[in-house]
Amino acid sequence: MVMTIDEYAAWAAITAKVDEHPSNERLSYLGLGLAGEAGEVAEHIKKLLRDDWLDKAGLVEELGDVIYYWACLCTATGQQPSELLKASAAKIKRRISEAASR
């Protein structure tokens, strides 16, 4: 079964018991979870630099965990992930265009 990013976020929010009005504690938990998983991604990259070998399966697993917390935070802030991705792409394109015109 293929899920859209918005469907995944809805599933993740149900799984994590997140709604659009989370407590400060719940929001903190999600933010710290995202930071922790991002740290695990960085750890895989560090080991690549140190050992010249990448545990791609491990990296992919951690990237999935990053997406889980990110999707939950999208729901917690009332954002549709697909809309956030569109806005992010537009921002990056704008930065590239501005850099190219300098």
Automatic annotation (TrEMBL):
<feature type="domain" description="NTP pyrophosphohydrolase MazG-like">
    <location>
        <begin position="32"/>
        <end position="95"/>
    </location>
</feature>
<protein>
    <submittedName>
        <fullName>Pyrophosphatase</fullName>
    </submittedName>
</protein>
<dbReference type="InterPro" id="IPR004518">
    <property type="entry name" value="MazG-like_dom"/>
</dbReference>
<dbReference type="InterPro" id="IPR011379">
    <property type="entry name" value="MazG-related_GP37"/>
</dbReference>
<dbReference type="Pfam" id="PF03819">
    <property type="entry name" value="MazG"/>
</dbReference>
